[in-house]
Amino acid sequence: MPFSSCPLPPRVRLVEKSSPNRAIPIVKNPRIVIKAAAIGALVTLAAFASPGAGMPALDVALPSDEYSSDSTSQDWVVVQSDNICGLKKARQLSNPGKVDFQSLFDSTDEAKKMKRDGIDESSPEGSQLKAAAFESIRKASVTVMNDRSLCSVWKKISNKKGTAITDVTESVRALL
């Protein structure tokens, strides 16, 4: 009797290329599939819910200083687009600095050239000069951030508890 002509139940097929040829049932009944998924979900939930089930609880597995909910890092109020350099997420901040970005921009050689020559910011040359000014501010901010041991430098940042934020505008301006 050839291999392919073995009589099999209607919902079972043979896997011909597997090492011992074996019958694998194909489940087409949606009730059985739903019940199997529900049982799998319950078993998984039970494994995570019971602390002694061999899996450590997440609050024990993660360092408490970075992920605890009572940390002061949640008190920073920021918009990511205001970040100049350094850490970008509020939950990561510990010692940020801030600058008066508009005054720094006006202090750059590129902004002075745009004003002196009457170059429009939306023109191609104006866009290039504006990008160059932003880059020079960013590079100077990185240097000041590293020198002052700050975690990041922002255009605008505040703290819910009213914590003072280091203003490094003049230090950055000195490097421009």
List the keywords.
176 residues; alpha/beta; Protein Binding, DinI Protein, Chain A; four-stranded mixed β-sheet; 7 helices; 8 strands; 14% strand; elongated
Description:
The protein is 43% helix and 14% strand. It is an alpha/beta fold and 176 residues long. Helix 6 (124-147) crosses helix 7.
Q: Strand arrangement, largest sheet?
A: 4-6-5-8
The run of helices and strands is: EEHHHEEEHHHEEEH
Radius of gyration: 31 Å
CATH architecture of the largest domain: 2-Layer Sandwich
Shape from CA axes? elongated
Count of discrete domains: 2
Question: What's the short version?
Answer:
The protein folds into two domains: 3-58, no CATH class; 66-175, Protein Binding, DinI Protein, Chain A, CATH 3.30.910.
Topology:
Elements: E1 12-15, E2 22-25, H1 30-49, H2 58-61, H3 64-67, E3 76-77, E4 83-86, E5 96-98, H4 101-107, H5 109-117, H6 124-147, E6 152-154, E7 158-159, E8 166-167, H7 169-175
Parallel strand pairs: 5-6, 5-8
Antiparallel strand pairs: 1-2, 3-7, 4-6
